[in-house]
Design a protein that fits this description.
Helix 2 crosses helix 3. This protein is an alpha+beta fold. It starts with 6 loop residues before the first helix and ends with a strand.
């Protein structure tokens, strides 16, 4: 029986396999992948990972990712200023989707084009997480439909009424000639570095 102390390594290999193939291996292939001596050892590992919520069994008895399969460890914080001692001991974990998405049925991802929100930390090519139909307040970053065109801006208001403000001083405020509608509230963003 493989030791439970290796389960995090086994889980990592299964996550890598899933990322490449978008499915989990059969038990015989899992035994080879994890360097186990037998299929029964693969069943034992899978059983422990199921109990921990990382794996589950589908109705047709195949292995599938469980609710915690996509958890990522939150090791510690890192200073953006002076260096500090590293600590990669995992204190907690989170699933990125659960962290960024409150309402899956109302959430879409959009790609940022242009530089009008760079002071808000949104660069061209970034992905923004948009909760469609969520109420927005002044100061929120929103995707708005202004005069039948989509744009990404801060929602602002003054004596003249609501308007859209860029996160870059090179761009003027946008005041609707006709209608201003909030398509969705930006709840997060991410980018992939090369």
């Amino acid at each position: 029986m493989p030791p439970a102390s290796h389960d995090s390594d086994y889980l990592g290999r299964l996550q890598d396999y899933f990322a490449e193939h978008r499915s989990l291996p059969s038990f015989s292939h899992m035994a080879r992948l994890l360097g186990l001596r037998s299929v029964s050892s693969a069943h034992a590992v899978a059983g422990r990972l199921k109990l921990a919520g990382f794996l589950q069994t589908t109705p047709d008895r195949r292995l599938a990712p469980g609710p915690r399969f996509f958890d990522r460890p939150v090791a510690d914080s890192v200073r953006a200023g002076l260096p500090a001692a590293a600590n990669d001991a995992s204190a907690e974990s989170l699933t990125i989707d659960e962290f960024l998405v409150d309402s899956p049925s109302r959430t879409i991802l959009l790609t940022v084009k242009g530089d009008s929100m760079i002071d808000a930390g949104l660069q061209p090519g970034d992905y923004i997480v948009v909760d469609k139909g969520r109420p927005a307040r002044v100061g929120d970053i929103v995707v708005a439909i202004v005069d039948n065109e989509f744009t990404l801006k801060y929602l602002a208001q003054d004596k003249r009424g609501p308007y859209l403000k860029a996160g870059n001083p090179a761009y003027p405020p946008i005041r609707p000639q006709g209608q201003l509608e909030i398509f969705g509230l930006v709840t997060g963003s991410f980018r992939k570095y090369k």
